[in-house]
Recover the amino acids of this structure.
């Protein structure tokens, strides 16, 4: 299967039997519409946001964030055989697509975004994107232009911060009802 | 057979997905006398903690919005802090009704990154336990969905058989739920003696039990009136709303990953994929009941094969990933070192990203992993079928009365642990 005609295609990666199409964020909706209408990817399975902050810094995989910052000397934080490949931007959005047809196929559409950058919503292409995009906003703080109901979904409406970001501390949340109050 | 087979007239013409927000049914502002009701979050028929804000005009549902997140536990964040092998404990708690499927999808994804070969005994046992979990999950669906519509006795019948399945799990793994029996590389322990006999007697009993369920419900006027033609969802709308599994198959789409993209050894067993064409609550019930029968035949085929494999290894012999046998620790320095390294530091998984999807009782359960080459996952994400299933509530709600709301939410079979993660 070739994806030559996908608008805004930057790179095609093949790994472990999976195809990843890296797409220009500005042309994401165009690319998705093309994949749905021309290639038949009619079902959007999932939108996953990933934060690559600190990717490749030596002991990053084992770091434990604390309210004071990172603890690099935490047990099991040491030792990398090699540092991984650097990433072009901080965030990715991965759209996992499925073709529900006799010739089933899967593809992952990926866009790279810096902190604070936004992408266009794909709700007009796949209505199921609604909650997945709200989750990406809630958990990672990636905003979607044109989303008709752009609010948090899992956390409280007045929550501060985006919990799945790598710089969001573990165990650093304030105690709400302590005995001293 | 074509994926979408048309049978005469479509379920309905056009699309019923609300605009502009696909998950919110907006009340017509011209309507007066609208009563807004909070359904949940702690309502017995929400299957967890789901809050629906329902606008009622008389008895009719004219507006609907779902509020989720009450059960958000942060599993994905927690798993980033745990080594790969410790992470196996968490997925089972995500979807606590089909616990072994989440465990399975996670270990399959890690094995794909590691390119690890799994012994065939482990593969077949994973299938056997997986299908038992599917029956267990459908029993919980059937019992609770019928209970909510008023068929209280169904609940007791379903939980009677569910108990047998949990006994099997307890025998194999030591615990009834959240078994943590699947390890990266195979199984945690060998299959105990006596499992085969008990599994056989279960396989003999289960089809008769399903006959009983159908005898109670299939000709029950109240059940039929409450389920037939209620909560219709067309095939096109179901695909657009990301539905998978029984909800999609009830809308006439012949789509089952076990057939379409066989994983484990599903290409070596015989079973049928039930497909119904009404797209209503009744057809979702029929799909699940038929699946229980099919799963029983798969379990018996697995047990038949497993009986031939007695004495074979149940976990891969890869000392960098798999814990060495306990007895070797007393005699072999090398094994002690491997054991120590795996338990303290954890094994390393090659850099890469991977997505694995399997057919869970609720649809496609997926796991997306990113590894940076270290002993802990960089990112873990579960593609939760229940999360997608709840997308469809607003589209199903056309012409529904407030009593149908209960039937529809029950039939979509969303487990809130899976929705909120």
């Amino acid at each position: 299967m070739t994806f030559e005609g996908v608008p805004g295609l930057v790179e095609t990666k093949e790994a472990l039997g999976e195809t990843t199409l890296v797409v220009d964020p500005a042309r994401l909706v165009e690319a998705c519409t093309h994949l749905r209408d021309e290639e038949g990817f009619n079902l959007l399975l999932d939108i996953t946001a990933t934060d690559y902050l600190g990717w490749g810094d030596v002991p990053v995989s084992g770091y434990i964030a604390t309210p004071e910052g990172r603890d690099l000397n935490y047990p099991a934080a040491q030792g990398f055989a090699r540092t991984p490949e650097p990433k072009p931007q901080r965030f990715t959005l991965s759209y996992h697509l499925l073709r529900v047809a006799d010739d089933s196929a899967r593809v992952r559409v990926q866009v790279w975004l810096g902190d604070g950058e936004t992408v266009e919503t794909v709700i007009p292409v796949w209505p199921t994107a609604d909650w997945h995009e709200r989750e990406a906003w809630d958990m990672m703080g990636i905003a979607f232009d044109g989303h008709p109901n752009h609010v948090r979904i899992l956390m409280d409406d007045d929550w501060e911060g985006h919990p799945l970001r790598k710089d969001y501390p573990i165990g650093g949340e304030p105690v709400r009802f302590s005995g001293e109050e | 057979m074509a994926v979408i087979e048309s049978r005469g007239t479509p379920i309905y013409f056009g699309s019923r997905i609300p605009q502009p927000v696909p998950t919110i049914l907006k009340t017509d502002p011209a309507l007066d006398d609208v009563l807004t009701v909070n359904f949940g979050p702690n309502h017995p028929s929400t299957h967890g903690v789901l809050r629906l804000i329902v606008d009622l005009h008389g008895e009719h549902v004219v507006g609907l919005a779902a509020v989720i997140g009450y059960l958000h536990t942060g599993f994905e964040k927690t798993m980033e802090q745990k080594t790969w092998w410790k992470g196996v404990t968490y997925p089972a708690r995500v979807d606590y009704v089909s616990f072994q499927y989440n465990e399975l999808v996670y270990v399959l994804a890690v094995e794909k990154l590691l390119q690890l070969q799994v012994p065939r005994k482990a593969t077949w046992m994973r299938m056997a336990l997986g299908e038992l979990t599917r029956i267990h999950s459908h029993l919980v669906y059937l019992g609770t969905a019928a209970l909510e519509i008023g068929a209280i006795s169904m609940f007791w019948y379903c939980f009677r058989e569910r108990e047998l399945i949990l006994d099997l799990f307890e025998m194999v793994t030591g615990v009834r739920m959240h078994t943590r029996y699947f390890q990266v590389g195979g199984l945690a322990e060998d299959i105990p003696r006596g499992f085969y006999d008990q599994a056989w007697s279960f396989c003999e009993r289960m089809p008769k039990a399903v006959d009983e369920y159908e005898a109670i419900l299939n000709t029950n006027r109240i059940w039929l009136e409450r389920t037939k033609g209620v909560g219709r969802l067309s095939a096109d709308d179901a695909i657009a709303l990301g539905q998978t599994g029984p909800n999609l198959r009830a809308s006439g789409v012949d789509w089952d990953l076990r057939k379409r993209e066989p994983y484990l050894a599903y290409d070596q067993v015989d079973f049928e994929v039930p497909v119904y064409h009404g797209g209503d609550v009744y057809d979702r019930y029929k799909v699940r009941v038929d699946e229980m029968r099919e799963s029983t035949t798969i379990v018996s085929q697995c047990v038949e094969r497993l009986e031939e494999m007695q004495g074979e290894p149940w976990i891969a012999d890869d000392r960098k990933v798999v814990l060495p046998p306990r007895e070797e620790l007393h005699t072999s320095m090398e094994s002690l070192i491997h054991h120590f390294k795996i338990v303290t530091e954890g094994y390393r998984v090659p850099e890469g990203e991977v997505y694995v999807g399997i057919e869970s009782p609720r649809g496609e359960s997926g796991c997306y992993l990113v590894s940076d080459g270290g002993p802990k996952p960089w990112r873990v994400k579960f593609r939760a079928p229940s999360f997608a299933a709840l997308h469809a509530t607003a589209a199903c709600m056309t012409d529904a009365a407030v009593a149908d709301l209960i039937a529809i939410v029950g039939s979509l079979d969303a487990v809130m642990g899976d929705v909120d993660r």
Notes: The first strand of chain B starts at residue 34 and ends at 39.
